[in-house]
Amino acid sequence: MNQIAVNPPKTDAKRHHDPEVRGFASDNYAGAHPEILAALALANGGHQVAYGEDDYTANLQQLIRGHFGATAEAFPVFNGTGANVTALQAMTDRWGAVICAESAHIHVDECGAPERVGGLKLLTVPTEDGKLTPELIDRQAYGFDDEHRAMPQVVSITQNTELGTLYTPDEIRAICEHAHGHGMLVHLDGARIANAAAALDVPLRTFTTRAGVDVLSFGGTKNGMLFGEAVVVLNPDAVRHMKHLRKLSMQLASKMRFVSVQLEALLAKDLWLRNARHSNEMAQRLAEGVRAVHGVEILYPVQANAVFARLPHDVSERLQERFRFYFWDEAAGDVRWMCSFDTTEDDVDRFVAALKEEMAR
Predict the structure, then answer these.
(1) CA pseudo-torsion sign 39, 40, 42, 48
(2) Cβ count within 10 A of residue 79
(3) Which of 35, 130, 183, 205 is the most exposed place for a label (fewest CB within 10 A)?
(4) Nearest Cα to Cα of residue 263 among 31, 26, 33, 30
């Protein structure tokens, strides 16, 4: 019988990128944190029960309850869109609708997945800073008994928002109380939830469980994980058949231990917080440098790890040849610069120096 070698042969894989290339396009561009890679290696080897019945996923539940409260339950998934769509499906009926900001990721950046895959109607509201308020919610919170209109059943907010702004715990509490008063539930898209907690300097449960959030999407990939996120159910009465919907949505990992162990590595101690604090600090350093450049306008308060700015279009195009980043509104000349857990002070300083050079041309 053939035996697998204890010391497997060296791989033929080759490096196809320059690890010295840096950018400010997205915190998704960063690789995996070394502690995450070590955790993946730790979980490897031997056999573990598939589809979430493994020891790592079981231990993850203890950690999630430690951060979010005794009723919290985590459902690991592959990615953020999968987390959002699965969560919202579980919170709505076939005729249900979700109220969200016009800038919400579920509306702008998920290729119609909530509508086409989840079968949901999104009721959007324009905002100045990406944040909903009870008054803004009321622009769409009506017609609950009108069979000609999709029924508003969920309010979805993002923390921190797609514009890099933060809700305070009191603001989220007010939204939850208002939504619940209308008989609606509250979902929180937490793709960068760690950055929000680090910026607010509060535990994760302060602006989630204690504020009244029912279900959240917990982000890990933007904070140092290789892949994977989780739907975290805070209110068990808010969802129906989460396990079935996760499978139906093609988000059930067979080798789930490799998602769960990454979340464990983030949450067991303070890796989630260290990574988030660092990326936030780099964004502050970037903002300070940019403010000193004449002709560049910072558009929103820099409260987490994003900097939104307006500058001449031709300057951005030249700068993009040196550093990767995206236009946010190309017609207006608005751009977005993101910092990640591995952004260095030198990265920021070189970028600011390049910006000054291009602005001076």
Answers:
(1) positive
(2) 16
(3) 183
(4) 33
